[in-house]
Amino acid sequence: MSKTWKKGLTLLTASVMLTGVVAACSSNNNGGGNTEASSNGGNAKASNATNEGASTEPAKAPLEPITYTMNTTDEKLTWDTPIQKIFTEKTGVSFKYDLIVGEETQKQDLWLASGDYPDIMAMGPQEIQKYKDGGALIPLNDLIDQYGPNIKEKFGEYFNLLKDEDGKIWSLYGVNKSREAKADASANFIVQYDVLKEAGYPQIKTLDQLYDILKAYKDKHPQIDGKETIGFSGAMTGWQVNIEYNNPIISASGLPDHGNFRIDADGKVEYNPVSEDAKKYYSFLNKLYQNGLYDKEAFSQDDLSKKLAQGRVLAAYAPKWMVGNVETQFRLDGHPERQYAYLPLFFSEDTVDQSNTVVPTFAGSLQWAVTKSAKNPERFIRFIDYLFSDEGQILSQWGIEGTHYEVKDGKRTLLPAELDARKNDPDHGTKEGFTSNGTGSGSWFNVGDGAKLSDGDYATPLTKDYQLSLYDDMTKEVLSKYGKQTWADFLPPAQVVPGYLWQVTPPDNINLQAKKIEEAWKKYLPKLIMAKSPTDFDTSWDGMKSTMEKAGLQEVNDAYTKLWADFNAKFNATIGE
């Protein structure tokens, strides 16, 4: 699932793919030419310049500077970058980041209770619903109608699907104008290169096969750099519990990612952590734990990437975005063998993999909402509209012409120095300004890797050739052992689906039941993983299942089944218009 699931059982309305690329603005000067008046603050009226009455060229009205505050958990995020300085030149807008240290959702709840929150909040759908219910947000419909032509053009005929049940737009996110799987798509189970090398690069397809090579490697290498080798790690505190103890079950079942739920062919929804496949996965973790292969700190750590960075974790469930820049640092430190292969692993070899899916929007991925603290919210919408323009897309995704890319034969191409920096500097994206605060796949409200802008060129640099250019020699060698060129080659062809269940606003009539069920899950997880015998495991499993059923499990499943049916009905009605 996307990083958005760190918020729990969340959702917002998904939209569908646009059926064409809409022209916005010229795109050849430092990321593009001039935008329309609605995007850049407007042009001043022409005035007489001489006694003869000759008029000058229309001049842009000066943009008064304005700064908005915004929440973030990224301590490196800054507005002082080359790209963001151009954002400010074009729009007059800048951001001051309010860093959250500690549990993010708790801090957001405290802000809401006190009425003292940043101007702009980047949140998942569930938190947006809280802020909406608390009267902290302003609706964006009228502002977008007046100041957001590029936003409306990019969403096109599906713009209305941005609206909530009350008909109002409470947040913004990116729209995916591509039907292709991303070139950097990958499976989410990771295994260190050195583990695969010592095992002779075996074809690993199941969790049991993974167990065998992990045990063999740790038996031979009980320590790495003087510290205990960790066979398999995870994280249980905060939002990562959903990624580490729900999503692997979905992946190992070969299913599309619907968050903490699974959906059968008839549209029936089931809470995934209490499914029979969940029991299989927790049994696998118990086996790891009983044989000294499971990270004992997993129950208390809230950032798996920090543990991965130590280089002694042999395997884990970790989507590429969670691994982050850890592998770049391994290469810089002279340990490319500690990088990870991204392999699809299943409960059985005959599992049909349906996990590679593409959705029409990036709803659910830290959408941006405007709070009542924001002064002149129209300036913020103009800023977002600039990002949705072709000029803004080129600047945010490709960078500055002559600095980050050049145009050859009418096509944008990243400069060699830029490619080298992306490959070797883990902080390059942040320092240059390519990194933003959520907004979906990639950053800065992009319109999809593989999508094209009105000039016929790609909206982002992410192509297969680009992905290959980032691989080091060892990565290419490991891939060649499996007859692959990229990690995406391990995946089946992508299927386009209307959306994911976690993108839709959750039903509010079962909040209490859902909370009790989640509490039972978190309570029993350590007991299941650390069970001393099969009997102890079964006792804990039965206890968890019974507790959830008493808390209203069936009501929750029924509510989400109806929610999914309603979403599909609305979606089908929209595309049928």
From TrEMBL:
Top-rank taxon, per record: Bacteria
TM ranges: none
Keywords: Signal
InterPro entries: Bact_solute-bd_prot1, SBP
Extent of Polar residues compositional bias: 45-54
Record region (Disordered): 32-62
Signal peptide: 1-23
Biased composition (Low complexity): 32-44
Record protein name field: ABC transporter substrate-binding protein
